[in-house]
Specification:
By secondary structure, this protein is α+β, with helices and mostly antiparallel strands. The protein has one domain. It contains 1 helix and 9 strands, in the order E-E-E-E-E-E-E-E-E-H.
């Protein structure tokens, strides 16, 4: 198993990991959610969302991790057992 292809589109990069069934690692950029109002009307501070990686498998729910090495390990594991 190996990383077969890397695709960049719209600020996201996806890697396809080969195996019995392909698994995709999609990198999502970090971003900040602006100030917002809570249920009680109070102003909440901006919230920082760190960079994270989505592991997509055919017909399954996505798995989200915050570390690329962990994302690659999980994707390789899923590609090998699919």
């Amino acid at each position: 198993m190996e990383v077969l292809e890397t695709v960049n589109d719209d600020g996201m990069s996806a890697q396809i990991v080969g195996g019995k069934k392909p698994v995709f690692i999609v990198a999502h950029q970090a971003y900040t959610v602006p100030e917002r109002r809570g249920d009680d009307g109070r102003l909440l501070p901006p919230k920082r969302i760190p960079q994270r990686y989505e592991i997509r498998r055919a017909g399954k729910r996505s798995t989200w991790v915050y570390n690329y090495d962990r994302a690659l390990a999980v994707a390789l594991w899923h590609a090998g057992r699919a």
